[in-house]
Specification:
This protein is rod-shaped. Helix 1 (about 1-35) packs antiparallel against helix 2 and helix 2 packs antiparallel against helix 3 (about 155-175). It is an alpha+beta fold and about 280 residues long. The longest helix is centred in the middle third of the chain and has 116 residues, at about 40-155. Strands 3-2-1-6-7-4-5 form a seven-stranded mixed sheet. The protein is built from three helices and seven strands; from the N terminus they run αααβββββββ.
Length: about 280
C-alpha cells in the first residue's frame, strides 16, 4: 500500500513538472522560432522530440517499477490471508479435539458413578442381611430364655414347648442362614429386566431371577438384564431362595460375541442347576 501511494505521488509530480516544462518549452520555442531560421527550427524540433521520447521511456520504466512493487505488495497480502485461514482452521480443529476429550471424560465419569451405585446397593443388601441375622439371634435367645422359664414352671409341658420352639428356631435359622453361592455358564435363551433363561448345549437349564442388587455386565460394562441379547454367552453366580426354592442371580457377566464358554470352577458343596419353571 505504501509503494502504491509513492507511485501515485511520483506520477502526479512528474505530470506537474512535465506540464510546466512543456509550457516553458512552448514559450522558449516561440521566442526562438521568431529568431531562428526554418532549418534551425526543424533541428530544434527534432531534438525536443528525442528528449520527449527519452522522458517517456524514463516515465515508462518508473511506472513498470511501481507496478512490480504493487504486485509484490499484493502477493504479501494474499500470503498473509492464507496464513490467517490456516491459523483459523488449526484453531477450529483444536477446539473440536478438546470437545471430544471432554465428552469422553464425561462418559467415563458416568460409568464410574454407575459402578459406585451398584457397589452401594450391594453394601446395603449385605447390611440388611446382617441385621436380619442379628434379629434372628436375638429371637432365638429370647425363645431359649422363655423355654428355660417354662421348664422351671411346668416340667410336664416344658418338653413339648421346647420341641416346638426348637423346630421354629431351626426353620428360622435355615431361612436366615447364608445361602451357598453357585455358578452356571451357558447361552441365553431369553432375557428381561426380571429374569434370564440360561441353557447349556441347547437345552433350558436354569431360570435366574434378577433383583435390584443383581450386578449385570455386558461385554465388561455395567448394564441391565434387559440389555442381554438372545444367544449371548453368560456366566452367572446365584443362590437358591430358602422359602421359594427359586434361584436368584447375584452377578451376571454376558458376552455378546460367541466365544467358547469357560467351565465354571468347581466349588465345595455346589449343587446342580435348577430346572426352569
Amino acid at each position: 500500500m505504501k509503494s502504491r501511494a509513492a507511485w501515485l505521488g511520483a506520477g502526479v509530480a512528474a505530470l506537474v513538472v512535465g506540464t510546466t516544462a512543456c509550457q516553458d518549452g512552448d514559450r522558449s520555442r516561440q521566442d526562438t522560432a521568431e529568431k531562428n531560421t526554418p532549418g534551425q527550427q526543424v533541428e530544434q524540433a527534432q531534438l525536443q522530440s528525442e528528449k520527449a521520447f527519452d522522458d517517456a521511456r524514463d516515465a515508462q520504466k518508473e511506472a513498470s517499477s511501481q507496478q512490480r512493487e504493487a504486485a509484490r505488495a499484493q502477493e504479501d497480502v494474499q500470503r498473509k490471508q492464507q496464513e490467517l485461514q490456516e491459523a483459523q482452521a488449526k484453531a477450529q480443529k483444536e477446539a473440536q479435539e478438546a470437545q471430544s476429550s471432554q465428552q469422553q471424560a464425561q462418559a467415563r465419569t458416568q460409568q464410574a458413578q454407575s459402578v459406585a451405585q451398584q457397589a452401594q446397593a450391594s453394601a446395603l443388601a449385605a447390611q440388611r442381611q446382617a441385621q436380619q441375622n442379628f434379629a434372628t439371634q436375638q429371637q432365638q435367645a429370647s425363645n431359649e430364655s422363655a423355654a428355660a422359664n417354662q421348664r422351671i414352671a411346668d416340667p410336664s409341658a416344658q418338653q413339648q414347648q421346647a420341641a416346638n420352639q426348637n423346630a421354629a428356631t431351626q426353620q428360622a435359622a435355615i431361612a436366615q442362614a447364608p445361602r451357598q453361592e453357585q455358578q452356571i455358564t451357558g447361552d441365553v435363551l431369553s432375557a428381561s429386566a426380571q429374569e434370564v433363561l440360561v441353557s447349556q448345549r441347547g437345552e433350558p437349564q436354569l431360570r435366574l431371577k434378577v433383583g435390584p442388587t443383581t450386578q449385570v455386565k455386558v461385554d465388561g460394562r455395567a448394564a441391565s438384564a434387559a440389555d442381554i441379547q438372545e444367544g449371548a454367552q453368560v456366566r452367572a453366580s446365584y443362590t437358591t431362595d430358602a422359602s421359594s426354592g427359586e434361584p436368584e442371580a447375584l452377578r451376571i457377566d454376558a458376552t455378546s460375541r460367541a466365544q467358547p464358554a469357560a467351565p465354571a470352577p468347581a466349588e465345595s458343596g455346589e449343587s446342580s442347576p435348577g430346572v426352569p419353571r
